[in-house]
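hey so u asked for the seq, here:
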Amino acid sequence: MSSSNAKLGDDFLHVPKVVVDRENWMTYKDRLSWSVDARGFLEHLDGTEKKPVDPSTLPTQGTSWIPSTPEELRELSAYRSAIKEWCMGEAITKQQIASTIPDSLFIQVKGLPTAGGIFMHLSNLFEKRSRIVSVELL
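ran it, structure tokens below
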């Protein structure tokens, strides 16, 4: 993933900031989606990439699961690899969003746990506002 990102370059993936008065929301939303998709993380933005489940928290494992068989060790290793990849995708997607929104919006969304949740919050905020403006114009 990182080798392809290096080939793309920052200018190629640059998304102009969303304007506070929301006049460029629709083009911003599409450009952000395209940029995140070019990085291979679109599922983080749309919320369909789910966080891997820690095998030690599964109900079938009991309260204090300690992997002991080769299969359980492979399962734990696969989980650690998957969670590392998921966290990287989340961090990159969140940073892409954070670098393209004003500080006032960043303060509102910085505590949300996922990139998909952040994007959904922004979408709701901007699209509700867009509908209100449309109604007022009519």
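The chain has one domain: 2-137. Confidence is low (pLDDT under 50) at residues 132-138.
lmk if thats what u needed
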